[in-house]
Design brief:
single chain
């Protein structure tokens, strides 16, 4: 019987679906992905005469934002998508200018084969930031993209 070894969290791939120009691998390289988590909100319910505990009834699922970090890439494809979100969320027009994207996050094993795949549905940027510039340090410039989304589901 072979021993099971959990996969490492360093070999992964991020793919945007529905963003024109992001077909190449250069636009989808990230050094860190976080925020694939959810929490089920509950509502307390007390029953008369039962003093030992209270019931917790499930209400809805709450998803955290997906956070992507990478070294700055000078290509404008992702930046253009972020700017179109910033400019296209004004709903004065009956036809919004911005289209959210689905994102596939794939965890891979040492051989490059998919171990687990998460489909993040209808993601859109809610925050973008750049690391500080510092002339006395020798750091890589890192951009951080925070995305809200409807839900995610594990496909594999």
């Amino acid at each position: 019987m072979s021993a099971y070894y959990p996969p490492g969290g360093f070999n992964f791939r991020v793919a945007f679906t529905g963003v024109s120009g992001m077909d190449g691998d250069d636009h989808q390289r990230f050094q860190e992905v976080s925020g694939l988590s959810f929490e089920i909100e509950t509502e307390p319910f007390t029953e008369g005469g039962e003093n030992r505990f209270e019931y917790k009834l499930p209400k809805r699922v709450k998803y955290t934002n997906l956070v992507l970090k990478r070294g700055l890439i000078t290509s404008k494809v992702l930046t253009d998508w972020i700017n179109s979100a910033k400019d296209g969320f004004f709903w004065a027009s009956p036809y919004p200018l911005f289209q959210p994207a689905d994102i596939l996050v794939t965890l891979m094993n040492d051989a490059g084969e998919p171990v687990a795949v998460w489909n993040v549905v209808q993601a859109y940027p809610v925050k973008w930031s750049m690391s500080d510039f510092n002339a006395t340090a020798n750091n890589i410039v890192v951009e951080t993209l925070e995305l809200a989304y409807q839900y995610f589901e594990r496909q594999k």
